[in-house]
């Protein structure tokens, strides 16, 4: 079977992870033991304050040695490696995180939630005072990991070099790998989804329905059908996915404030007479008058996806049915 063509492609090579270094790493030399249960990707700390950041859960759609295609609430996530991912099965599930310059991937069995693989990618930060440890960001915070049997390989790396390691349940490094991903976002997450994406960048190219979006983690393609209209090359765009809501802000080059905001989410009237609707935004839930959206909202069922467009002053421009 041929995988679907990319709608929203986000490729992060290990080399791209050599940017910002996470701060505040602990210096302890004690091996870390991970919790037996998988942390909720959407519950990771400080999502709203961290960009870039991504937290998704995925189920195996198709796999072959070295590559796995995962269905997520926002689209297809592809993981690939030349050195690992040899044993992916449909009975396994994946949690995926990006946090600034770090990436974490956990693969667990569906039946009992037991750990199969845990990968941590980021710039090298070695333990203090010559301890044979590598400090990594994890969804539970920054932790030190003993080199295990990979001391010669890891000692040869310099601080800031990008590297992916596999760690076991006791927090010991058991492998050094390459790991890449592609993320395709072509849909608003369905109701009940635990999805999070926060990315900011510049619109570098427009083609058909696609916005080429230059971000700190690479140039990506955004399908404008998720609720973005009239983007222009050179504009700054911030894309925020939270559970089943999408917010996209467009700002002119060197501009200080958005000139357009597009909020997409399930239709929810906040008044019995349907004169206002309620949406999630990064600042919390907000309500908007429906007088400019009579044609789009006429006959629309609550819970169906709808987009509201706001101008730079936060006033409603129009409502649209989401594709």
Nutshell version of this structure?
By secondary structure, this protein is an all-beta fold.
Task: Write structural notes for this entry.
The protein is an all-beta fold and 323 residues long. 3% of the residues lie in helices and 44% in strands. The protein has two helices and 21 strands. It has a 17-stranded antiparallel sheet that branches. Strands 7-8 form a two-stranded antiparallel sheet. Strands 18-19 form a two-stranded antiparallel sheet. The longest helix has 5 residues. 41% of the residues are buried.
Number of strands: 21
Unreliable residue stretches? 1-40, 42-46
Beta strand %: 35-45%
Please give the largest β-sheet. Answer: 17 strands, antiparallel
Draw up the topology in text:
Blueprint: E1 53-64, E2 67-72, E3 75-80, E4 92-99, E5 102-109, E6 115-123, E7 133-138, E8 141-146, H1 151-155, E9 162-167, E10 173-177, E11 180-183, E12 196-207, E13 210-215, E14 218-223, E15 236-242, E16 245-251, E17 260-266, E18 276-279, E19 286-289, H2 294-297, E20 305-311, E21 316-321
Antiparallel strand pairs: 1-2, 1-4, 1-12, 2-3, 3-11, 4-5, 5-6, 6-9, 7-8, 9-10, 12-13, 12-15, 13-14, 15-16, 16-17, 17-20, 18-19, 20-21
């Amino acid at each position: 079977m041929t995988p679907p063509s990319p709608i929203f492609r986000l490729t992060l090579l290990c080399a791209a992870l050599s940017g910002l270094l996470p701060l505040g790493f602990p210096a302890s030399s004690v091996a870390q033991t991970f919790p037996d249960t998988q942390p909720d990707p959407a519950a990771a700390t400080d999502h709203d304050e961290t960009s870039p950041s991504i937290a998704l859960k995925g189920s195996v759609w198709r796999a072959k040695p070295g590559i796995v295609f995962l269905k997520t609430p926002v689209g297809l996530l592809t993981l690939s490696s030349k050195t690992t991912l040899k044993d992916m099965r449909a009975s396994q599930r994946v949690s995926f995180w990006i946090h600034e310059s770090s990436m974490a991937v956990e693969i667990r069995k569906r039946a009992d939630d037991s750990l199969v693989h845990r990968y941590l990618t980021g710039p090298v930060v070695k333990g203090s005072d010559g301890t044979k440890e590598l400090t990594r960001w994890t969804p539970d915070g920054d932790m030190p990991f003993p080199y295990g049997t990979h001391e010669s390989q890891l000692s040869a790396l310099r601080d800031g070099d990008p590297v992916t390691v596999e760690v076991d349940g006791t927090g010991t490094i058991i492998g050094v790998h390459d790991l890449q991903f592609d993320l395709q976002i072509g849909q608003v997450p369905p109701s009940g989804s635990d999805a999070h994406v926060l990315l900011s960048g510049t619109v570098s190219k427009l083609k058909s329905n696609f916005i080429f979006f230059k971000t700190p983690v690479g140039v990506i393609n955004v399908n404008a059908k998720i609720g973005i209209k009239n983007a222009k090359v050179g504009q700054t765009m911030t894309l925020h996915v939270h559970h089943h809501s999408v917010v996209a802000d467009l700002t002119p080059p060197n501009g200080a404030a958005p000139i357009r905001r597009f909020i997409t989410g399930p239709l929810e009237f906040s008044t019995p007479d349907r004169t206002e609707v309620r949406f999630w935004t990064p600042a919390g839930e907000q309500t908007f008058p429906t007088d400019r959206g009579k044609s789009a909202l006429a006959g629309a069922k609550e819970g169906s996806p709808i987009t509201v467009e706001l101008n730079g002053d936060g006033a409603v421009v129009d409502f649209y049915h989401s594709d």
